[in-house]
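Hi R.,

Quick one: here's the Protein GrpE sequence you asked about.
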Amino acid sequence: MEKEYSLMNFLDRIIVLEEKFCSFVSETKKETDYDEDRIKKLKEIIIENIIIELIPITDSMEMFAKNFDSNQTKESEIIFLIFKLIKKFYKKFNIKQISETGVFFNPDIHEAIGIFPTFGKKKGMVKTVLQPGYTRNSKLIRPALVIVYN
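And here's the predicted structure, written out as tokens:
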């Protein structure tokens, strides 16, 4: 009889320990899920900050490329290589440039800083992009600065 009582106590303790263990596993999983979400959010913030820092560099490199003399030097080749690497980074993280002319002005992605008079069908269309804008995963990072036909 005493052995049966002792066995019952032992089984009860096993059940309690099993419940505690299951509770521990459940809580640990919740904390792990929470940490994974925080890590994903932090990663997005870091990527966005890097992009914000890279955009002015990209602007400068694009101006350099437009005004570049065809007599290439080793330094200019290096600059073009860096420019290609930045573009590759943009593609990897789904960063799109807003630089198209001849499209209708969209206040969600364009910022009009000037108007150009017209009497044709071009009214409301982007005439010139003075500074390209950028989006990432359809989220606006920087609007394109444009001149619009009016």
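The chain has a mean pLDDT of 84.

Cheers,
M.
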